[in-house]
Amino acid sequence: MRNLLHPKWLLLLNTAAVIVLALLCYGQFAVIRSLLPAGSVSTWSWLGGALAGVALSTLGYALGQWRRQQEVSTLYCLLTLVGYSALICIGVSLDTELLPRDVPRWMVPTDPLVYLITFLMPTLAHAGYALVVRLTPAGKDYSVLTNVGLALAAPLSWLVLIMLPGGLLLGSILPDWLGSGLLVTGLVVGTVMFLFYLVRVVYILDLRRGEYGQEFSLLWKILLGIVLPLLGLMVNNGLFWGNFGGTETGIFGNFSSPWFYGLAVLNGMLLCLPASPNRWLHLLLLFGRSVLLGYTFYFFLVFLPFLPLALLAVILIGTGFLMLTPLVLLLVHVRELAADWEQLRLAFSGRVLLVVLLSGVCTLPLFITARYLADRHTLHQALDYRYAPDYTCRYTLNEHALARTLGVVKQHKDRNSGGGPFGSHVPYLSLYFNWLVLDNLTLSDTKIADLEQVFLGELPEKTEQAARPFAVPAPAAPVLTDVITKSTYDARQQAWVSQVELRVANTDTTQRAGEYTTTLDLPPGCWVGDYYLDMNGRREHGILAEKKAAAWVYAQILNETQVRDPGLLAYRNNRQLSLRVYPVTGQTPRVTGMQLLHKEPVTLLLDGREVRLGTAASVPVTVPVVANGGDVVYMSGAAKQRLPLVRRRPYFHFLLDVSERQQQQKQAYARRLEQQFGAGVLTDTATRFTLVDAYATPVAAGANWKQELANHEHTGGFYLDGALRQLLVQAFLRPRATYPVPVVVTDNLAAAVLGADLAEFQAAYPESDRFYVLDANSHLTAHSLRHEAGRVLSEVAAGTSLPAPASLVRAWPTAAQPQAYLADDTLAEIVLVHPVAPMRPALAAGGRWQTGLLLHGYQQWQAFHPEAAEDQRVPFVRASFRAGILTPFTAYLALENPAQKAALQRKQDQVLSGKAALDVDEGESNQPTAVPLDEYIGLLVLAAVGLAAWHLRRLQPV
């Protein structure tokens, strides 16, 4: 332990920690600064200046002592304990000054005081250890019992004072302010003295272990290394009085894994083993002890922020001594490693010992990191396959590894599962897992259930809403009262620029605050170029931001107790806009609006009102409009009518459910198909079959599909959505004179993984959006690919000819060499010139409408190339920002103050740096994203327990 006196430790434990503390706190301050009153800003400034002053003084002292090759002095240790303890106490006393109650909590996910306590505790711990070494030099005789008595004096004194019938004597003699000040001072001094003498007892025992004998040394090693750690784990997990809501919770975190118990026993055994006379066995023992040093140090870090509360924990809870076990055990562990080093230096060089020691210390962190990286790889593979697949690749995932990874994700998501204040989180490891595996984001319960259904075949749980005993009518929502439009034709970019202004108000004028919501279908060739919301007498233009980040900020503002003024405009799907405005209060109307860019006059339906934008163009758009670069073409209805008409030949493509739930029924598929379609269809060379479970396995043309069906080994659930997507993508990228008619064969369509619709692929089915389902009763039903895919549109009568005569379609650009087929209607369409070739999202054009055409053309290209979504998502979002054109990946958000805008920027940076398939929140819950360090704030409540006991005693009659 003498090495702790070297000043180099101050650079790591103080200087580096304070730098991290300053960066974290400044990040919080920069967001909320505009909301802070002048007094709070001043408090932040002088407290930060005080912290900088003591940190720079410590740095200067460390460098000076290092240059003079001197150890840290006793005076430094005393001043550090006093100064940094005072700084923490002052910070706690100024809690409401640093973070006023009217500052929204979601803007500051971690309380600055948690940072202050967490990052200053290493300095205090080092000063305490160093002071013990300085005041306990070797070669002198020390009384163990005396130091034990001094260690117990503080908690016993406080216990006696609290239990006195009249309460603390200070409260009846001194003024309240002076009594409270002395109480806090006494608590801090008593805690420091208690920890000092406790550590000193262990240090003295180590110095005198030869005097007490090997047997006594072994006994207290067993006590500290095995008995107390196991007892602490069992107490934490509630094994003595019934578990807290399950096996995955604990008082200080989730330490229920058998690994914690096993490592505790192994660690204790290695510390108890005597040094072997065989140098190689002794070297192996050094390696084992160095490996488990990470385990001991981990629990030291876990309980380090709680050391200021150690005295209260000992006074109020007898098992509070278990909190101190890691503090003492770390001393024993380090001392054993030092003794091993001294003995082995006679047999090995210092370089060999250093390599062995460092290798051991790095083993556990590297093992955990490797495990988390494997979880990240497994999870990302599953997310890529489900949400951004490469249809040219064959995926093979380890379902068992995925099940374990999703289990860990769910465990780390559960912040308070009915047990201790920290739920099922594992302190620090949950933080590390969320950073390394989840990019500091999350995976919603919906997506977890989705992945489990696809790969593990588990059906999502059905949640039944409890019936209310009395029907409570919902308050009337705000409605649209007026729409004002203005359209101007921009000859330079040959497009219309229209302003659409909405006025919304409450029908129930007594309603305090309501949210106005509506949807708006945009035709092809119409883009949103701006959005605004009037608030507080001014017009606030919306910020074009990443969609998930904007939706999260909007949700957090709605959850506030104070009334704010956000407005959100985003795509609900590829063509439908969603508008939300909050709040609409009383009789006061809210004014909001948007700018629309469109090539031709359009008619929109807005809350039941027809809104006409633009007038009859003097020059109709009768020819294709090619965007700069030639990758995207806008085909108006008139231009489409000039294309040649062709009729393609349909063929059946049967999608057979071969998931685990269908293993007993798939033998009946051939009989059902022959009965419904006839043997001729099944033997037709054009007919295709695909076996669908978690993966879509196409049967090669001409192969025996019955044999393939019989030999197929099932994997996971019925991932119908992926099979349909793969079929439509292939049909679009390889346009032919034939087109598929999908027929799904399954006993239970409700068990299939099927999205709401496949409207984004409508360019792949110009003839018809119908697909069919053949169920266990040989009933054939029609469904729509365009909307509500799971709903039955109609039942096909037996003997009906399928498919119906194919509709005529338009061939583009020519019937001889078609590159795409378009529906024969008067609706405009966006056409990709080279749908197979790569396309870049960072585009520019001659005008904003042209740029919007390129952006929306790229969005359509990406739907058929989902494998490019991850790599090109950020450039696509940035291109949308530069152009000021809304896309399905961005949103316009109107905010009230600079703090909200700063919070939006912070959340957006976090989302854009993570994986696209990960989530910001739980969707409907819209809970603030918390940082695991927040867990420690709960234990600070223990500090109030002592004061509460004091005041309760004072209220009791004498």
TrEMBL record:
Residues 468-598 form the VIT domain. The chain crosses the membrane at residues 9-32, 44-63, 75-94, 114-132, 144-165, 177-198, 218-239, 259-276, 283-303, 309-332, 352-374. It comes from the Bacteria. Keywords: Membrane, Transmembrane, Transmembrane helix. Coiled coil: none annotated. NCBIfam families: MSEP-CTERM. This is VIT domain-containing protein.
